[in-house]
Structures
1.
Amino acid sequence: MKQLAVLALACSLALPVAAQNIAKVNGQAITQEHFDQFVTLLVAQGAQDSPQLREQVKKEMINRLVAVQAAKKAGLDKDPAVKQEMELANQSILVRSLMTNHLKEHPISDADLKKEYETIKAQQGSNQEYKLRHILVKDEDTAKTLIKSIKSGKVKFEAAAKKDSIDTGSGKNGGELGWGPASNYVPEFAQAVQSMKKGETTTAPVQTQFGWHIIQVEDVRPVTFPGFDEVKPQIEEMLRQQTLATYQDNLMKAAKIEDDK
């Protein structure tokens, strides 16, 4: 008996792996090879290989094959709309695989990331942010009158903002807008802010789409640029997209395209 068991085991080991099946659906086999490929794909996407996962994969493959066989029996694979959709899906998979392969063959190194980081940091290194207050009124004459009153000391900026600003959100806080870059504001407002120094108040009202502004720059400071590790993922994704865009452009330039229209 022992010899027969050893012989049976030896015969089973001699069978090619590709010939092994995990199930059959209406006589059509689901091979161990395809099953393992499915599991490998899910693991690569972040799933944890386990007996539970493998059982779920087996059920899913059986369910899919049952449905596919039913669809073919109904002749749906011959339907022009279905065939077109299948072709588009096939194209999408191939394009995605092409791009993934290109990134694999042209990886973005830490040196690339740090170089791009330093470039961006240098470009934004001179940027400033401002701590602002403003008063918003409907007409220019009212704004001019308030500026005179503030300059002469008859009224404090904060008090005028609480009393006269139609921007009730900041007005109730004395016109306070807090810290932020000039780019946070509409162009006319931003341009006026960038021309001012710490402690200054506009000598003339600034008109925007919202009305007439009196602006006070309470403080100015350089923009704090985030550390490399903090922005590394964003920079990596940006460089990945740039790499793929360049690759796509090169493919288009190398292709012979004839427009028949």
2.
Amino acid sequence: MKNKNIIVFSPHNDDLELAMGGTALKYQDEGYNIIKVIFAAGHMSNPHLKEEYVVKARERQALKVERKFGFYKTIFFKLEDTKFKHEIEFVRKDIEKLIKKYEPKKIFIPAFQDVHPDHRAVTKLVKDILKNKNVEILAYEVWSFLDENLPKVYIDVTPYFKDKIEMIKIFKPTEWFSVYMQYIPIYLRALRFGRKINVRYAERFYRLM
């Protein structure tokens, strides 16, 4: 449906769920189609396992989230984890085609100050592609620790927070380290952002355009 699409550019399989799972579910309930674009499986966080096994397992997990929670589509670019800086241009035309095809009302990308270099590479490329496009761009926080001096948007995700945690649990078998590292910050961040708008749980975004 034209203008009822939202594209979330997720550097790794679980970034959408960790940063904005509640918001994705909220928008879905409002009639939007959630299109998740995954750049790499993030297999380097499990160096003790075979790359092929981790990549396939994580793709299955992402598709399980799509089926269980009703996301419209999951797209895999299959770049090499930790090498986005050198490979990100390979998918420029693919991103341009996706934006032209779905004509999204909103696009979500990682925050500028995210400490993960892969996340910053995605943000830089997508922002460059969209510089002359009339579309709302919102930045989400995964591994960001400093507030950015940009307009902020807080979204009440209280009714969806339990499902957000269930989403994240789907990735535990292969992403246990990043998932467990994020559990406490996810709760604390949601509570802190919730206080900004007088609700129990909220997610925060930076408005870029």
3.
Amino acid sequence: MSEVCIGLSPQSLEWCEGKMNPPGIRTHVFAIPKRDIVGWPTLPETITTNMKELVVFTGAFVLAENKKWQKIKVLVERSPVTSASQGTKPSKTFVNSATFVHPGVEEDATAFCRLANNDDYVYIIQTKPGKYRVIGNDMYQTETNPSQALGASATDEMGTTLEITVTDICPAPFYTGIIETVDGDINAPDEGGGGST
């Protein structure tokens, strides 16, 4: 019996002239070791009504008992997030990358560097319009490469930089589920909304 192949067709990409499109992320990134996630949201394989559905997680992260997403304060002007295609057909994927610059270099920031350097983390960022996106997944390991600059002269920069890279089947997927943080639960915005942290 031959396989029946059903392709997904795209829909139009519209844009309203004059619409504001603020770039960048908000001031807090959320991080957790992958081993503390016991249930994962999923990406749909098909479209019901709108192709947007393909990039929005269904469900929510389920964390191990007493585990929470930790907050990392970042300098937003120096913390870009990007996605790029990689590989060859029919196995092309995306590499999702982020640079998170934290201003601290003291014991807590240094300890995070030591822990994340050889571990596998998942990160959630919030865009300026308020939507949450995920960097990390249950299929591929996330690389976190930390570095610190202590400075020398009075005008030198100090801080901790986290370079994040991970392979994914989608550019940083959107997440609308609950984020259980150390400071309490955050209700992510709905499709048209925009919460804050």
4.
Amino acid sequence: MIQRIQSIYLLLAFICMTMLLFFPVFSIELSQPDTETIKALLTKDGIVSGQNLVTELPLFYVYILLALLSIACILLYKKRPRQLMITRINLILHVLLVLGIYTFYFFGEPFVMDGLSDGVYENAKIVFLMDTGFFFLIPPVAFIFLAIRGIKRDENLVNSLNRLR
């Protein structure tokens, strides 16, 4: 089970997804010329400013689901077609998560401004900054893609051995 290279790739994807539970993905700085800068973090629980939860966006459910899918793919090593199907679903879900977070990172400023609809932050400058968790989003996609290639390679090897019988 672990001696197969795709199991190593899936384990690395699992580790990256569990690291997202401990590190914030990015931070949002809201600054005005007259007042102090307010900093908020996108964490597993949502957008947090200081000790206060600003917006509840429970990403930890998504992180845990994707991490468990990676472990399930490792445990399905005896059923390669099913393992391949679950790994492909896992890849699609990872890509959707990454696209969603990156889209919000690059195009989310109007949504943050709409959320601050009171007139206090009318001329505020919003800056998105990458945090540690931001760099744990991309590697699982690559690891899962490599695992799919390894599973296909194993399936082709078994099929070629069946033809020799």
